[in-house]
Design brief:
290 residues; mainly alpha; 11 helices; elongated
């Protein structure tokens, strides 16, 4: 029968060790192995042998192949104790360590003449196909056009509202100016206007000199004035007054003394007067009796 080996050093996988212990215990109970057959091995931490083995398997490659950088921040012990229980401070420490390592690496690469930035004409093949990228581009352009159209409509609505507001203000201003102008005209007519208001309308309010010549009115204008008058009140113009009632200068006996016209004394030539209805009926009956 073979001898079972039991290790006193715990391995990294606790589940596998538990399974092995259960198998050995089952074999002892069934009598397949004896207690004397179990051999105990103790492991020794031989540092020198481990280093020799590490040097044997370690590949001595140039730094350009692995780019390994070691950064020693030299954090004090008291500060390290506070960092252990603070996740944010730990992340900040890792960030600072990475930043220092990156700076050292870039400086070292530049010293070696190695480029650390991608050139402008660098061409990298896309993982996605051209058709897929074309669809993505079309979708992005469609979204951009929709956004521009929406912004344009919104801007037009705002401009429309602003235009209406400006139009209302302009109309209001015109109404106020018209009202002010009418008030100024009334004041000028009544002779109560200021010199500034008169200057605005460019009206000469001073009376004309006595020696100045008046503009002559032509015959056509005189005829129309005599026919139609000069404006003003039109109603009740033909109504008699006390003066017109007493004034008989326009009376003419030749014109106003003619007798009234009647059928007897009307000597005017023309068609004879048509007989009445009853007379026409009698005339009709006489004609039938004959």
């Amino acid at each position: 029968s073979g001898k079972a080996v039991v290790s006193t050093q715990s391995t990294g996988d606790d589940d596998e060790s538990d399974v092995e212990d259960m198998e050995i215990t089952g074999a002892l109970k069934s009598g397949k192995i004896s207690e004397g057959a179990i051999k105990t091995i103790s492991h020794v931490n031989n540092v020198s042998k481990l280093k020799e083995r590490l040097e044997a398997i370690q590949k001595k490659l140039p730094w350009m192949e692995n780019l390994d950088v070691t950064v020693d921040l030299k954090v004090p012990t008291e500060e390290m104790k506070a960092i252990i229980n603070d996740n944010f401070k730990q992340e900040m420490l890792f960030y600072k360590q990475s930043q220092i390592g990156t700076q050292q690496s870039i400086a070292r690469l530049k010293g070696m003449g190695v480029m650390t930035q991608r050139p402008e004409d660098f061409f990298a093949e896309m993982v996605k196909s051209d058709e897929h990228m074309k669809r993505v581009k079309e979708k992005l352009i469609s979204k951009q056009l929709t956004l521009e159209r929406t912004e344009k409509v919104t801007k037009m609505r705002k401009m429309k509202k602003l235009g209406k507001k400006v139009q209302q203000e302009v109309l209001k201003k015109r109404t106020e100016e018209k009202k002010q102008m009418m008030e100024s005209v009334k004041k000028i007519r009544k002779g109560k206007a200021d010199a500034e208001e008169v200057d605005n309308f460019d009206i000469d309010t001073e009376p004309e000199a006595s020696g100045s010549k008046k503009k002559e009115i032509n015959r056509k204008r005189k005829a129309k004035d005599s026919k139609y008058g000069f404006g003003g009140k039109k109603k009740m113009t033909k109504k008699n007054t006390t003066e017109s009632y007493k004034d008989v200068s326009s009376f003419s006996s030749r014109i106003h003394s003619k007798p009234k016209r009647s059928a007897k004394n009307d000597k005017r030539k023309g068609k004879p007067q048509r007989p009445g209805k009853s007379k026409r009926a009698n005339m009709k009956n006489k004609a039938k009796s004959r």
